[in-house]
Structures are given as structure tokens and as C-alpha cells.
Specification:
The protein is about 30% helix and about 15% strand. It is of the alpha/beta class. It folds into 2 domains: about 5-25 and about 195-335, HAD superfamily/HAD-like (Rossmann fold), CATH 3.40.50; about 25-185 and about 345-390, no CATH class. A hairpin with a 4-residue loop joins strand 2 and strand 3 (about 75-80). GO terms for molecular function: 5'-nucleotidase activity; metal ion binding.
Amino acid sequence: MQQHFSLAECDVVGFDLDHTLCRYHLPQSARLIYDSFAHYLVTEKGYDEDLLTLAPDSLDFCCKGLVFDIEEGNFLKLAEDGTVLRASHGTKSMTFEEILEIYGRKEWKHFNTVSGMVSRTAKYYLYDNYFDLPGALLCARVVDSLDQHDGQKKYDFWKDMVAAIQHNYKISAFKEDCGMYFPEVKNHPDKYLQRCPDSVKKWLKQLKNAGKILLLITSSHSDYCRLLCEHVLGNDFEEYFDILITNALKPGFFSHTPNQRPFRTLENDEEQEALLSLDKPGWYSQGNAIQLYDLLKKMTGKLDPKVVYFGDSMHSDIFPAHHYSNWETVFILEELLGDKGTVPAKAESEPLEKKGKYEGDPLKVPYFVSKQWGSFFMDRLPGLENAEETLVHTWSCKCISTYSTIAIPSLEAIAELQIICTMGRSRQPWLGLQNWQCAGCRYMGLPSRDQLQIANFTHHRPHVF
């Protein structure tokens, strides 16, 4: 891995949309997403109506980096070596003894697959973004319900969960007012969407004025993208970008060939004919990174233009952009705002269903440290045979250092810093972050000698700032 990264040396700056350029009011959006999935399971698939209500603070269960072992009904928090740090069956936390009995002190059986490609399969599901995360709580509660009523040992409800996701997020749902999610956001955008800070909008304009090519690459369809961008950036949002790509279907955008995933033009938000090549800037749908990069070569006049991409999903943004396209990646990780590397005491093992129900009480902000799951970055590993416990990094933390160039809590973390010029570079922005300490040091207790000295934007990997 390279030891230095300079935004000034990047020719192209790309952005994901949801939870990157467009930030959400997380408590409200989390509840909406949960309700939209639960309503489908109850009304369309006949699941228990109790799923429609939530216990106080129940969204505390939702923690990025969890892996759902679908057949067993277990949620797992993995260490960087693949061993299980914490686990729950449904919403009920497992004891250390139960974890040892089921998983031992060895690598989880699917770890090689999930870690190699940051992947998802029919046997497990990785929760790594806020659009998916409320579904983790719903799945856990379904396991609780099935245990209570049916005494199941293996679980086959995942197909119904997939149907709920597809029903609420399918391409035509926005136009058809289908499901609960899109109609609610359309009718009450201020309730769910945060306005983009002026500092970020100014920064985007500075990048473009400095000669950078700006990309927007989102898996959201064009009509939803338009709603979000007009609300958070303004009606002139298209002026911020040279190329807009919607319905990108990431991570496939990075891994598929032009034949598998051609670009398509748009007319009134309807996809038109497939394009044999991408010849000019504009707004497109679907597509692939190979043809996009060919266009970037033409636009920059360089054989190997350097691209940096900002995104919030390790599965859909950071890993594939790094692995398949060799782009620099900036991981938007809101957990940096609340997770100081602390490891709370073990949570109660009582299922959430037994803690009472409520309607309309305020919800805890999801990105704060989960009491049940502890720190996103590290955790305690109990010692065997009276040995002392040790602190270990999580697999999620390892992914950050492996696949992201840097990690920041939001775009404001960069946009509000002074942009100055480098010596000998005419009108090239240089990110002056003098004497900042990286999050790897601040949040994980690493030595101060590993501070991020960014007068020259020098990044001491594998930390994040």
C-alpha cells in the first residue's frame, strides 16, 4: 500500500450519494426503513403483527459490520482473524461460553469467503450501510418470533426479507408510489434529509474550478437521485458534476464488463438504448467502470488519470472501487463521531420483545456505540483458562485499513479545512490538515508518533483519520 495520498494529485473526484453527499436524519430514516420492511412481512407474508412495534432503544441492536448467519439465525461480530467476538441468537446476546461451544476459538466457517470479497451470499449477509441496517433488527426479531412459536432450529425466512427489500427499493417504486419508503420521503423530505452544508457546496465548486472532474455515482434511480440532490444541493445540482451515473447497481458497476453492464441514456427518467461506448460527459444510467475510465482518459488527456472515490459502504463502494478499479477511496464512516474505541460492558441477554413496547418515543441515534455490540473498531477477547483478556481489532476495522485510503466521519471533515496551493502547482488544491491526529490513533489508543502530519497530507497507513 502507498504511504502518501494527495487530493491535489487526483484528476477525478467521485462521490456516492446516499449517506455520503446526502446525509439523512438517522433516527427517523432508520425507523421508516424498519417499518417499511416489517409492514411488508406482516401484510404480505403473514408474519406476527408484534413486529410492527418496537421496544425503547431497540435500534441499539443495529451495528455496522455485523454478519447474519442466515441458516442459524445468529448475528456475529468478527475479529480481524475471523474469530467470533460477540454473537446473538435473534436479539438475545450469547454468552462467551455459548460462543465457544458453537464457534470455538477458530475462524468462522465462511470468513475466507466474506473477507476475500467483502461479499454476501444466500448463507450469510453483511450489514454495512444505513439502508440495510434496520433490517438486521427485523431479522433478529423474526428469529425470536419463530423460536417462540415454532421452535425452529434452521431458518428459511430470508427469501421473504429479500422480497421486502425489493418491494420497497425497486426502481419503479418511486414513480409508482409503491411501498412505504419512497412515498414517505417524497412527502416529508425535511423529516429525513439533511441539507448539504454550504462548506461542502463551496468545496465542490473549488474542486471543479481547480480543474478536477467531478463524478456522482449512485445506485439510486434517477428520479430519487433528483429528489435528493434538489433538496440537499439545490435545483442547480447538475452544475456541480461533470458526469452523473444513476442506477449504477454497485458493486457490479466496478466488477462487470461493458457487455454485462452497458451504459444507457435517460429520457424523462426512463432508461433508453444501450450505448456501445461512453463518448461525452452527461447523465447516464447503469454502466461500468471500464468505459467510464476510458472517457476519463479522453477528458483529462492522460493515459492513467488518478481517481478518488468517496462512499459509505465497504461492500458497494470502498472494496470494489479499490479492488477492481484501483481507485483511491475515502470511507465515510459516521461511527467516528461517536465511537472512541471504548468497549462497554456486556449487554443484557434478555430479548428485546420482553422489554416493553412503545409508539413514538425518541430513538437513539444509530451511529453511537451500540451497548449490545460495543465498539465498531475493537473489542475485548476473553482469555482462556484464567488468562487475561486482550483487546483486538474487529474485521470491520481491518477492512478500513486494507481497502480505504482514508476514513472520515463526513465530507464536512474535509470541506471545512483550508484548501491551499502547493509549491509549483498552479491552482491545484492542497489539503492542509496540519497536526491532525488520525482516528486510528485517537480512537484506538495508538502511539502519538503515528500522528497524521498533513502539512504535505502524509498518511501513515493503516490508520484512518
